[in-house]
């Protein structure tokens, strides 16, 4: 897949062509092609570092894939850059800085904490604190309502006693009307 | 609290507002961190004379466009007539950055190809394409492996960079240039830089 931007009509056409060509392409891939073997660093430790870092970097072409997962040509290029730079002794932070300088924070799956991302990182905390505050307010209000309801007047107490003793109807009728 | 029933409605309107705004954004257009920064320097072989390297400094003192293109790029064909027209009107010098001419083409398996052979093929293909479609560039350079493209943060073709007299990137256009984007964004920006400089 070449990295390019198709106009809409062409994109639809390309999709149709891709769908049509998929079985063919797969058939071609299954024929062992030494040219298609992925580049791998000889040192396994280095390769695992490359993959670890690649999983944290977003592919700009297939935006929901990391450059470790994507096979877009740009992802392959960037993976090679990561490998090359780590092999030459640069630290992981150096490599990340190199890519951020060119593609921006967008390449990072984990956005950095700074002024523009304050709401992003602080949002959940804000929601938690807000929710907890609201809950505390509601609970306190309910408690005071219950407490307020707990104070009965002498007449109410008297009536409650009568009700509990079964001496009165739960209405305004007088006890004598009971037959 | 008589209007309590309005709370879900207000929350919904707020959420819908956010989502509606989100729909107007294009996630494919990743803002470049290179804007207002010095353009990364490079020295690449010229397409017209591959023995001669072209360096970015040679354009110092001019306001110019760096247009990333390739013969395999379909969207480049869409913007190309506009570039040719701009060249004819001598609006602004445009340098072409021919990006991964051979290995970028999905139809060619360039792995294992020797660099000399790949370069020769790239030159042949790029020249033929410019003969067929017109050459709007003051010159084109060959970025065979896409390394300079990475330095410029290129993630697709075409892309166009507006570079000022001091060699700073002032604007990046992602995707094909349209007559509207040229008139509404690029030309005013060129004017602005020329007035200020």
- Our measurement of the CA-to-CA distance between the termini of chain B, rounded to an integer number of angstroms, reads 61 Å
Order of helices and strands of chain B: HEEEHEHEHEEH
What does the overall shape of chain B look like? globular
Round the Cα radius of gyration of chain A to an integer and report it: 35 Å
Task: Describe the strand arrangement of the main beta sheet of chain B, using strand numbers.
Answer: 5-4-3-6-7
Largest sheet of chain A: none
Total separate domains of chain B = 1
**CATH architecture annotation name of the domain at 44-114 in chain A:** Orthogonal Bundle
Q: In terms of per-residue confidence, which ranges of chain B show pLDDT below 50 for 5 or more consecutive residues?
A: none
Beta-strand proportion of chain B = 15-25%
- Report the sheet-strand fraction of chain A: under 5%
Helix content of chain A: 55-70%
N/C terminus separation of chain A: 94 Å
Kindly name the structural category of chain A.
mainly alpha
Largest protein-protein interface: A-B, 27 and 35 residues
The total of beta strands of chain B comes to 7
CATH architecture of chain B, by name, is 3-Layer(aba) Sandwich
Oligomer: heterodimer
Shape of chain A: rod-shaped
CATH fold-level name of the domain at 44-114 in chain A:
Helicase, Ruva Protein, domain 3
Q: What does this molecule look like?
A:
- The complex is a heterodimer of chains A (179) and B (197).
- With 179 residues, chain A is mainly α.
- Chain A has helices at 8-30, 44-54, 73-87, 92-103, 118-149, 154-164.
- Chain A has a domain at 44-114: Cytochrome C biogenesis protein (Helicase, Ruva Protein, domain 3).
- Chain A is built from 6 helices and no strands.
- In chain A, helix 2 packs across helix 3 (73-87).
- Chain A starts with 7 loop residues before the first helix and ends in a 15-residue tail after the last helix.
- Chain B is α/β, with parallel strands linked by helices and 197 residues long.
- Chain B has a single domain (34-196), classed as Glutaredoxin.
- In chain B, 39% of the residues lie in helices and 17% in strands.
- Chain B has helices at residues 6-24, 74-88, 115-133, 147-151, 179-196; strands at residues 43-45, 53-55, 64-69, 94-99, 139-143, 159-163, 169-174.
- In chain B, strands 5-4-3-6-7 form a 5-stranded mixed beta sheet. A two-stranded antiparallel sheet of chain B has the order 1-2.
- In chain B, 36% of the residues are buried.
- The chains are: A mainly alpha (179), B alpha/beta (197).
- Chains A and B meet through helix 3 and helix 4 of A and helix 2 of B.
């Amino acid at each position: 897949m070449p990295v390019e931007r198709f106009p809409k009509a062409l994109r639809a056409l390309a999709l149709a062509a891709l769908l049509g060509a998929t079985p063919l392409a797969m058939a071609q891939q299954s024929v062992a092609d030494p040219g298609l073997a992925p580049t791998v660093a000889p040192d396994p430790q280095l390769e695992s570092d490359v993959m670890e870092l690649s999983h944290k970097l977003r592919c700009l072409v297939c935006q929901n894939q990391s450059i470790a997962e994507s096979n877009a040509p740009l992802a392959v290029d960037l993976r090679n850059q990561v490998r090359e730079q780590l092999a030459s002794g640069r630290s992981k932070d150096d490599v990340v800085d190199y890519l951020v300088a060119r593609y921006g924070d967008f390449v990072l799956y984990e956005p950095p904490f700074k002024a523009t991302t304050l709401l992003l990182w602080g949002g959940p905390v804000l929601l938690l604190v807000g929710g907890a505050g609201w809950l505390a307010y509601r609970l306190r209000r309910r408690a005071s309502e219950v407490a307020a309801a707990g104070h009965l007047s002498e007449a109410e107490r008297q009536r409650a006693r009568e009700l509990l003793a079964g001496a009165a109807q739960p209405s305004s009728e007088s006890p004598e009307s009971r037959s | 609290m008589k209007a309590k029933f309005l709370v879900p409605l207000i929350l919904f309107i707020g959420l819908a507002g956010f989502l509606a705004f989100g729909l107007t954004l294009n996630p494919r257009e990743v803002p470049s961190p290179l804007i207002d920064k010095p353009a990364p320097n490079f020295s690449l072989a010229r397409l017209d004379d591959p023995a001669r390297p072209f360096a970015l400094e040679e354009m110092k003192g001019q306001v110019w466009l760096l247009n990333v293109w390739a013969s395999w790029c379909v969207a480049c064909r869409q913007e190309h007539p506009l570039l040719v027209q701009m060249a004819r009107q001598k609006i602004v010098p445009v340098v072409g950055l021919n990006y991964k001419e051979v290995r970028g083409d999905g139809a060619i398996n360039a792995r294992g190809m020797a660099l000399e052979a790949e370069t020769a093929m790239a030159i042949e293909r790029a020249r033929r394409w410019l003969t067929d479609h017109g050459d709007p560039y003051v010159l084109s350079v060959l970025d065979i492996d896409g390394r300079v493209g990475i330095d410029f943060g290129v993630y697709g073709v075409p892309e166009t960079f507006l570079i000022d007299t001091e060699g700073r990137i002032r604007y990046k256009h992602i995707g094909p240039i349209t007559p509207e984007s040229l008139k509404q964004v690029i030309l005013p920006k060129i004017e602005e830089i020329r007035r200020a400089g």
